[in-house]
Structures are given as structure tokens and as C-alpha cells.
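Pasting as-is:
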Amino acid sequence: MTYDELIERLDPAVYQSLKKAIELGKWPDGRAISPEQRAICMEAVLHYEGLHNIPEQERVGYIDRKKAGGDACDTDDGTSPIRILN
């Protein structure tokens, strides 16, 4: 079985579990997820989302840039706020 076949056959519950582990930084049993495990899980989740045509709004890392409202620092005149670095 190839990696693509494995991801294609991945159970949706396992996909959700991997997403949750990435989000929380720990496995469902409470053990911490290592940086290497997080990277592997992220790769699998992104590949799964691509193969299964998950809607863009539901994908890992999606940022809604069209959302109305914004925050107080958003400007419409092309300027940006000044950042003060110490």
C-alpha cells in the first residue's frame, strides 16, 4: 500500500483525531505530541483534505480574509499601523 492509498482510505474519525492532536498538541489519551509527530500528522491531514476535496473553509490553517468587520487596526486607505520594536 502506498502513502496515497493509505491517506485515501483513512477513516474520517482518524482524520478528525489527527486534526485535534495538531490543534491541542496532545494525543486523545493525553500524551504530548512531539514536533516530529505534529509535522507528520500535518502532512497527512493536508494530503487527506486535498484528496477528499474538503471545502476551503474547513481546511487546516484556513484564514477568512473576506470576513467583514476586521479589527481596529484595519485601514482602507492602503496604510498600515506602525510597529514599535524594543
